[in-house]
Automatic annotation (TrEMBL):
Its EC number is 2.7.7.12. It catalyses: alpha-D-galactose 1-phosphate + UDP-alpha-D-glucose = alpha-D-glucose 1-phosphate + UDP-alpha-D-galactose. Residues 32-41 have a biased composition (Basic and acidic residues). This is Galactose-1-phosphate uridylyltransferase. Coiled coil: none annotated.
Length: 396
């Protein structure tokens, strides 16, 4: 399939990229609108305070927790981000056409339609300011116990469809293939940015998850640090390699295939299984059969297959729970791509998707108990085998 990539800048300087798979745009017969008519100030321009004096633009900072070693971004400006807007005020919908026939937009997309579009988040938890890197560090209160630094990463939004009322599972495989191409493009581009150590594409779906924009979309975080979960995975993978000479993530997939009891979907290039130590009420991992570090490393056949398999998985998960009337319950979920880190330890990583839900039964959510929230000591409300048996029963 032909997918055309067209990049531009929004009025405040943020990058926006169209990924087109439909005509006349895919072949170049027409081009999406590239100018943003909104009167937005440059996001890096000095800010004039109430006293009339100009101060340099600031971005989010991150502080290191000395008790755990975790970096915690501080992004107080996100308190003012858009929250559950009306459908006609959704910032992810395409521009509208006025009575005069002129397109206008108070949202983020300049054109009146699009296939897939990616742009820098207007309310980012991570942002690279010109001239600042994580090396421009300081100490909170001047005490070396509390290191702090600019949260010099990047946050992007991936709009899956211009249809405000649809969801990922409503898409065609053709469109999902375009989304896969967008993930691959952004993974490669963001990994090449200075200081980026990890790229994480993900989707939150459903109010139960905390979604503030119902329009079908995902996000991509490019972290200037390695996240705590990935650090733990790298630690285990390194220990395993030293002990056995094997690759942990590869061997996990092979072990799940040998056992077979928790495998819920297979294709030529992909395997989906409920992990043997699943912690969420519904949890599935989707992994390529071939060892690849990230989405950008997938070949064309693997990307084509992924578009089909991903849809089968999402649509199957939407049939996991049934209400009292026998109707299927759309599953609230988080779907995130675990990719190899950019720097040291990259050889220990292996691409895989983790999809999980907080819904433990119709109308019942899994709330984290004290030991889970306070001690990160997880307690499962079910067993991986029960989750797998239900998915095998559907089937996907």
């Amino acid at each position: 399939m032909t997918i055309r990539r067209t990049a531009t800048r929004l009025a405040d300087g943020r990058e926006l990229v169209y990924f087109d798979d439909s005509e006349p745009y895919a072949s170049g017969g027409a081009t999406r609108r590239l100018d943003d008519p909104r009167p937005l100030p440059d996001r890096f321009a000095p800010v004039v305070g109430e006293d009339g004096s100009a101060r340099p633009a600031t971005g989010p900072e991150m502080r290191r927790d000395p008790l755990t070693g975790d970096w915690i971004p501080m992004a107080s400006h996100r308190m003012n981000r858009t929250f559950l807007p009306a459908a006609d005020a959704c910032p992810l919908c395409p521009a509208r056409t006025g009575a005069s026939g002129t397109a206008y937009s108070d949202g983020e997309i300049p054109d009146t339609d699009y296939d897939v579009v990616v742009f820098e988040n207007r309310f980012p938890a991570l942002m690279q300011l010109p001239g600042l890197t994580v090396d421009d560090a300081w100490h909170v209160d001047g005490d070396p116990l509390w290191p702090a630094a600019p949260a010099a990463g990047r946050c992007e939004v991936v709009c899956f469809s211009s249809d405000h009322t649809s969801s990922f599972g409503d898409l065609t495989a053709h469109r999902v293939r375009t989304i896969v191409e967008a993930w691959a493009d952004r993974t490669a581009e963001l990994s090449a940015l200075p200081g980026i150590q990890q790229v994480f594409p993900f989707e939150n779906r459903g109010r139960e998850i905390g979604v503030t924009l119902p329009h079908p979309h995902g996000q991509i975080y490019a972290f200037p640090f390695v996240t705590p979960r990935t650090q733990a995975m790298l630690r285990e993978a390194r220990t395993y390699a030293e002990r056995t000479g094997g690759h942990l993530l590869h061997d996990v997939v092979e072990a799940e295939l040998r056992a077979g009891t928790r495998v819920v979907l297979e294709s030529e290039h992909w395997v989906a299984y409920v992990p043997a130590a699943a912690r969420w009420p519904v949890e599935v991992h989707l992994a390529p059969r071939r060892d690849v570090p990230d989405v950008a490393a997938l070949d064309a056949a693997e990307r084509d297959d992924l578009a089909e398999v991903y849809l089968r998985l999402v649509r199957g998960l939407d049939r996991f729970f049934v209400d009292a009337d026998g109707d299927h319950i759309p599953l609230p979920y988080i779907a995130g791509w675990h990719q190899a880190v950019v720097g040291a330890g990259r050889e220990l990583g292996r691409l895989h998707l983790q999809v999980f839900s907080v819904l433990r039964a119709p109308g019942k959510l899994k709330y984290l108990a004290g030991v889970e929230s306070g001690m990160a000591a997880w307690i499962s409300d079910t067993t991986p085998e029960r989750i797998a048996a239900r998915l095998q029963e559907i089937p996907l």
